[in-house]
Amino acid sequence: MSTSVSYIQFVCDQLQDFPAVRCRKMFGEYMVYVNDKPVLLVCDDTVFVKILPELEPLMQRAERGLPYPEAKEHYILDIENRELTRAVIEVLERVTPLPKPRRKTQ
Length: 106
Prior knowledge:
The chain is about 25% helix and about 25% strand. By secondary structure, the protein is an alpha+beta fold.
């Protein structure tokens, strides 16, 4: 099962208070970017967040799961909890580096 278009739209709607939110489809699933930084992974209509020490105080009671086979364990974010989502995105936006530009192949 892959993420539905309506669910990814719902996720992006929950992030409307943040500037420059976009999503990118990847292998039937989605990466959500804030200010061009990859912050959320959405797989099978579930929002996953990378486990980072900076998020431990916020996510210590959160469920954990695997976004896809052979992936590392991630936190599962309750995207409907706007207060928690805002706090998590603020931390992720601060600690996540911009992706390195890709080299163009000839």
